[in-house]
Amino acid sequence: MDTKPDYDLLYETAxxxxxxxxxxxxxxxxxxxxxxxxxxxxxRFQRLFRGIYRLINFPSSPHEDMFIAxxxxxxxxxxxxxxxxxxxxxxxxxxxxxxxxxxxxxxRRRPGLRLHTNSxxxxxxxxxQGLPVTTAVRTIADAAxxxxxxxxxxxxxxxxxxxxLTTREELMAQAAHQKGRAKTIINKIVVAENPI
Length: 196
Fold this sequence. Notes:
By secondary structure, the chain is of the alpha+beta class. It has helices at 7-15, 23-28, 33-41, 64-73, 81-88, 136-145, 150-162, 168-176, 180-190, and strands spanning 20-22, 45-49, 52-55, 78-79, 98-102, 113-117, 125-128, 131-134.
């Protein structure tokens, strides 16, 4: 590669991703495989997963597994379901896999990840701790639909309301677009005069 590596541009890219970057992003800023390897050996970069690195001067994230999962499926993937609940700290759920929503036409071949194909509206996506994530109200509905234990969904609703991450009106609007379990649980908590 003839392009001179641009550390400043790579830093800007990584900074917006809590210090993480992909080999493709590094290549776009002039870093060859050899240059990446040299920076790993010199202690400037850390290789975390095949094709995924972190700038050493950034502290590792407590959600490093989510950053790695997101970068493996980026740019159109979004942290979702139980993983989003964990990111929001909305329940005691401890997901065994990282859940992401990917576009319907995206490859589902990503071992170790729980991929959900779905179309998201822009207003259903936000950012939290540098990661794209479904909004709290969308996260609650997805968790309920996927079969998360009802007490965990109830806890998530109560926490989200208490912390101002969503409103009763938003939850009711979400329930109106749902069927089955999600609609039942949300209505049970939000519409009832005395929520659990």
